[in-house]
From TrEMBL:
One of its GO terms (molecular function) is protein N-terminal-serine acetyltransferase activity. Residues 11-155 form the N-acetyltransferase domain. It comes from the Bacteria. The keyword DNA-binding does not apply. The keyword Transferase applies. Keywords: Transferase. This is Acetyltransferase. GO terms for cellular component: cytoplasm.
Length: 157
């Protein structure tokens, strides 16, 4: 629950996710239940990002199933006190083989707001390539934003 509370302290995380901006135990539990229901509903899979040494949850990784066959979407966040340690990049690298193989994906993509340089760095560090820019593609709090498109595809055998 502490991870969810800390995620809500970064205005960008609740703005682009279902993390509660104002934390209560009830809202925190509702968030957890929404993550569990994603697999049950066929939407994708949410997993906690956990520090190896402490076992403490420091973020979230979500692999969504896009409407296109064999295409997934990637979302993630790391709580502010745990940033800058390479945890997001390590988590993305760890989830990649599983997502591509277990979900039979031919493409995993991530959409990033242009000013989110940290997330762009994570994706590049995990082997994603920037493909382009979708203008006015993301709506966050009733405002439109461009999205930079990053993707990775399985290696050809």
């Amino acid at each position: 629950m502490e991870c969810i509370r800390l995620a809500g302290t970064d205005p960008r995380i609740p703005r682009g996710t279902t993390v509660p901006a104002t934390f209560t135990t009830t809202e925190g539990l509702a968030f957890i239940h929404r993550q569990w229901s994603r697999a049950e509903n066929g939407e994708g899979v949410s997993q906690a990002v956990v520090e190896v040494g402490s076992g403490r949850a420091v973020g979230l990784m979500w692999v969504a199933l896009r409407p296109q066959p064999h295409v997934g979407g990637l979302g993630y966040w790391i709580i502010p006190p745990a940033r800058g340690l390479g945890l997001a990049t390590a988590a993305v690298r760890l989830v990649l083989p599983w997502a591509l193989n277990a979900l039979n994906l031919r493409r995993l993509e991530a959409w990033v707001e242009p000013d989110n340089v940290g997330s762009q760095r994570v994706l590049r560090g995990a082997g994603f390539q920037q493909e382009g820019r979708l203008r006015n593609f993301i709506t966050v709090e009733d405002r439109s934003s461009d999205a930079l498109v990053f993707s990775v595809i399985p290696p050809k055998l």
